[in-house]
């Protein structure tokens, strides 16, 4: 399931509405949700148009880089889970996935903490 679908179907979007003090920086896939909740969610800036001035392009690039730098500490540990073969090629029973994922999460968390 895509992250954006999970946010809507699992009630996470509703939780953002219930707790307006919670804020998050999201990737471009959540731009629609960020438009719905502009005070809580911050998506990357829109790419400037082709006829944009060099100053506008430079400002966009700086803003995009700033948000990316703030999100990277969360994105790397999330991506590490996907690099484990046990999860990439999981062919087991659906009800066993949670246990497998939990078994992988421990070493990933330990390795991230060491850094």
Task: Return the structural class.
Answer: mainly alpha
Element-by-element helix/strand order: HHEHEHHH
The poorly predicted ranges are none
**What's the total helix number?**
6
- Rounded to the nearest angstrom, the distance between the terminal CA atoms is 30 Å
Rg over CA atoms: 18 Å
Total strands: 2
Residue share in helix: 55-70%
How are the strands ordered across the major sheet? 1-2
Q: Any idea what the shape is?
A: globular
The share of residues in extended strands comes to under 5%
User: What is the arithmetic mean of pLDDT?
Assistant: 78
Q: Sheet with the most strands?
A: 2 strands, parallel
What is the element layout, followed by pairings?
Blueprint: H1 3-9, H2 12-18, E1 24-25, H3 31-36, E2 41-42, H4 54-83, H5 85-88, H6 97-114
Parallel strand pairs: 1-2
Describe this structure as you would to a colleague.
The chain is mainly α and 115 residues long. Helix content is 63%, strand content 3%. The chain is built from six helices and two strands. Helix 3 (31-36) links the parallel strand 1 and strand 2.
């Amino acid at each position: 399931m895509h992250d954006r679908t999970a946010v809507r179907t699992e009630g996470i979007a509703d939780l953002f509405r219930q707790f307006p003090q919670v804020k998050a920086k999201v990737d471009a896939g959540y731009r629609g949700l960020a438009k719905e909740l502009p005070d809580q969610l911050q998506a990357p800036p829109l790419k400037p148009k082709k006829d944009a001035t060099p100053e506008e392009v430079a400002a966009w690039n700086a803003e995009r880089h700033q948000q990316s730098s703030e999100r990277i500490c969360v994105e790397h540990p999330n991506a590490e889970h996907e690099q484990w073969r046990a999860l990439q090629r999981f062919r087991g029973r659906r009800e066993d996935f949670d246990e497998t994922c939990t078994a992988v999460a421990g070493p990933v968390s330990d390795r991230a903490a060491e850094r």
